[in-house]
Recover the amino acids of this structure.
């Protein structure tokens, strides 16, 4: 009994703060999504499902942003995981200078997203931008990266993916170190070459870690805001407007907080779905091993 | 004879493989390092050289005045101070709260323990954008918009604080409780145990929590963008984006100088405490 009281006292500062900062806003966003709430108007009137109806039937930008979010997230996960897995596999081979490479790859991880976005925006300037200048050395004339639809989406995806490669590489390296040497030795004794050892032994043993990294990266990719805001401002003509950015734009630039709340609910539901998939996948994985 | 050649091939192939791996490594790491070099170089270029062709890493004329421009165009020293004290407050509060609740979730038995912990964890999955609009309306009602209060309470009670609690709880679960039980027999109360025994034991994990909390606050951009209006209240990530001319076009050299100044302390801290920072962030992100 006393223990219960002590426990509640100890967790109460955080729980109360959590209720105010997370739980109430989460319920409030659902409520707001059924109103015509506007940042400039004092009161909000209930409008039923109007916001959702507008979203699905009248706002072409909504479906576009859903598709853009999907492309962005998929691209980010593939680039990020492929690069970090590659780095980890190579650096695990005890190459001379491996620690230095790893430290260098980690520099963007400690940097702010804002700084990373601004520097890349600078590098990707169309006229005289550094990336295009370097490309022209190879006689490639680069596009005006941030002002053409497809290059812009590709650019923000790659820039966002690069930022955390070092972090994921460290996570993969830790998993690689925990692989028992005997498993690899046994495969070598059976005559497996480097390629086969990687394909048949190392990668399957890395699968659970890979799953975790993919899920974390995927869920993280749905809240990416800084790169979009600072590199393209959602453009050109909405080509890089992901859902998270659309919420900000509708809510804080166009002041349509009711409609933005409906978008936020959609983002929340998508995230919830991913979390459910993650649980299911982890369970399946544990059982199949 | 054939044995010899195959032996040589076996020796040669690792060398070729090694070279290939180094080439691929450099290609993979280049886009992660190059932006820093170019940022530093552009921070010291006069405007005329910023987009000069062919691009040069070393400026022909070093424009030290870019650095003074950073402080002339905005109250940058004040903005750095804002970031420092907000991050320090977030760090201290996160450590304190997560120690209390992390310890309680790990060591004490009470009804609803798992349910409440599970509820907390949901904050880790929640995109910040989802709750931002109601938070803004609530904090505006409380007259806290355009103050630093939101920038302190949001991370402390939101995802950063929850992550910290998760790590502290995990730490105590991996620790045998005998030491604390002995202290209890000696007549020390719960708070005494936390203060005299649990906190010193948890020091390495609190260090990790401090690193995570400080970096999360120092690097955050969306919340200061939404909650701050006055330039003198800006934190560094918002400030470095605001070096523009009258038409809103970025003053690239000044902006790069400001970005370099803002990045330098973090990179320096990383060089000094590489192991600690790497492990903390990797640990927090692979739960």
């Amino acid at each position: 009994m006393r223990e219960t009281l002590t426990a509640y006292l100890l967790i109460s500062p955080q729980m109360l703060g959590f209720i105010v900062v997370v739980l109430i806003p989460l319920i409030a966003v659902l409520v707001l999504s059924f109103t015509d709430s506007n940042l400039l108007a004092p009161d909000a009137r209930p409008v039923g499902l109007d916001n959702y109806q507008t979203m699905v039937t009248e706002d072409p930008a909504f479906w576009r942003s859903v598709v853009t979010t999907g492309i962005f997230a998929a691209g980010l996960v593939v680039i990020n995981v492929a690069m970090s897995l590659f780095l980890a596999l190579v650096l695990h081979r005890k190459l001379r200078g491996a620690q230095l490479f790893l430290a260098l790859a980690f520099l963007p991880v400690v940097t702010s997203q804002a700084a990373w976005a601004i520097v890349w925006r600078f590098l990707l300037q169309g006229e005289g931008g550094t990336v295009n200048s370097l490309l022209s050395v190879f006689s490639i004339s680069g596009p005006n990266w941030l002002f053409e639809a497809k290059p812009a989406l590709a650019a923000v995806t790659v820039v966002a993916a690069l930022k955390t490669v070092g972090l994921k590489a460290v996570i993969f390296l830790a998993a690689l170190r925990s692989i028992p040497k005997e498993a690899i030795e046994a495969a070598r004794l059976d005559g497996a070459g480097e390629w086969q050892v990687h394909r048949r032994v190392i990668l399957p043993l890395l699968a659970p870690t890979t799953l975790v990294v993919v899920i974390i990266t995927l869920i993280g990719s749905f809240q990416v805001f800084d790169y979009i805001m600072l590199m393209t401002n959602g453009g050109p003509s909405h080509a890089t407007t992901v859902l998270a950015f659309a919420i900000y734009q509708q809510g804080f630039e166009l002041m349509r907080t009711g409609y933005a709340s409906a978008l936020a609910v959609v983002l929340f539901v998508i995230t919830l779905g991913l979390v459910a998939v993650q649980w299911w996948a982890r369970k399946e994985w544990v059982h199949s091993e | 004879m054939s044995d010899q050649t195959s032996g040589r091939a076996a020796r040669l192939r690792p060398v070729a493989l090694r070279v290939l791996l180094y080439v691929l490594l450099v290609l993979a790491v280049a886009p992660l390092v190059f932006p820093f070099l170019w940022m530093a170089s552009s921070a010291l270029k006069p405007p005329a050289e910023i987009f000069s062709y062919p691009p040069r890493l070393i400026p022909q004329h070093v424009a030290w005045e870019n650095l003074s421009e950073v402080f002339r165009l905005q109250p940058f020293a004040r903005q750095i101070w804002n970031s420092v004290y907000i991050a320090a407050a977030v760090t201290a509060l996160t450590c304190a709260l997560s120690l209390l609740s992390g310890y309680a979730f790990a060591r004490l038995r009470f009804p609803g323990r798992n349910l409440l912990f599970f509820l907390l964890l949901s904050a880790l999955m929640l995109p910040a954008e989802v709750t931002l609009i109601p938070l803004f309306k609530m904090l505006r009602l409380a007259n806290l918009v355009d103050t630093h209060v939101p920038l302190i309470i949001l991370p402390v009670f939101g995802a950063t604080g929850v992550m910290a609690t998760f790590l502290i709880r995990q730490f105590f679960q991996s620790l045998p409780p005998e030491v604390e039980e002995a202290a209890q027999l000696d007549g020390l109360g719960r708070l005494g145990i936390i203060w005299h025994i649990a906190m010193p034991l948890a020091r390495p994990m609190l260090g990790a929590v401090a690193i995570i909390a400080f970096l999360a606050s120092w690097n955050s951009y969306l919340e200061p963008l939404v909650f701050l209006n006055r330039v003198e209240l800006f934190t560094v990530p918002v400030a470095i984006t605001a070096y523009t001319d009258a038409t809103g076009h970025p003053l690239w050299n000044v902006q790069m100088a400001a970005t370099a100044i803002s990045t330098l302390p973090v990179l320096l801290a990383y060089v000094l405490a590489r192991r600690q920072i790497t492990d903390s962030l990797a640990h927090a992100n692979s739960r």
